């Protein structure tokens, strides 16, 4: 016997009763001082730069306060300084691991991949992946996609590579110049030694 749609209480032409999870489909606004959420490439650069400046500022203040206090302890001052700097940089590492994890979540990857930072050579490839890898276009298993970058985030994110290149140049150029000067001194010493040897043979 055929059952009617009325008896079953269902209509095959009705739309499904279950609706998509709006929270998963909608994007969200990332917060810089947060441990959760996804961030894209430009925000990763901007947040990293902001954290760097804040950390350098705090380390400078702590160093100005602690170094004079520790310096008067003789031989123990070096050990105490290492311990203090270690305590300072532990939260620094934690902060950058959190930023990298949020970037990995945007790439739909587990945060455990941040441990690759400790692997030589591979950490370089991993860093490039964080910088250039495109994130998931929509929601993934780690949450909804972040909103579009703000003007301030774009400016900071674009300035970050320039600052990094400037810092590297400030370190590399003097080192290269020192290498050139040493090479010239060694070459000059070799020429003088060779000339003395020739003079000795003539005598």
UniProtKB/TrEMBL annotation:
Extract the ranges annotated as region (Disordered).
Answer: 1-20
The GO cellular component terms are:
plasma membrane
Q: Which UniProt keywords apply?
A: Coiled coil, Membrane, Transmembrane, Transmembrane helix
Extract the Gene3D superfamilies matched here.
Glycoprotein, Type 4 Pilin
Q: Where are the transmembrane segments?
A: 44-67, 79-100, 112-132, 152-173
Q: Which residues form a coiled coil?
A: 176-203
Could you tell me the superkingdom of the organism this chain comes from?
Answer: Bacteria
Q: State whether keyword Lipid metabolism applies.
A: no
The protein here is known as DUF805 domain-containing protein
Q: Which organism does this record belong to?
A: endosymbiont of Galathealinum brachiosum
């Amino acid at each position: 016997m055929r059952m009617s749609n009325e008896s079953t209480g269902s209509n095959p032409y009705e739309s499904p009763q279950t609706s998509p999870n709006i929270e998963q489909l909608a994007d969200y606004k990332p917060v810089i001082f947060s441990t959760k959420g996804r961030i894209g490439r430009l925000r990763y650069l901007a947040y990293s730069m902001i954290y760097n400046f804040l950390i350098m500022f705090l380390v400078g203040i702590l160093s100005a306060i602690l170094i004079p206090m520790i310096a008067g302890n003789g031989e123990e001052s070096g050990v105490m300084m290492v311990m203090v700097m270690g305590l300072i940089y532990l939260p620094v590492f934690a902060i950058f691991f959190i930023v990298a994890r949020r970037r990995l979540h945007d790439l739909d990857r587990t945060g455990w991949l941040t441990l690759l930072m400790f692997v030589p050579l591979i950490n370089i490839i991993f860093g490039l992946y964080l910088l250039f890898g495109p994130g998931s276009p929509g929601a993934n298993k780690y949450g909804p996609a972040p909103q579009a970058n703000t003007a301030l985030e774009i400016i900071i994110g674009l300035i970050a590579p320039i600052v990094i290149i400037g810092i590297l140049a400030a370190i590399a150029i003097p080192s290269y110049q020192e290498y050139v000067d040493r090479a010239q001194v060694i070459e000059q010493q070799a020429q003088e030694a060779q000339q003395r040897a020739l003079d000795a043979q003539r005598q």
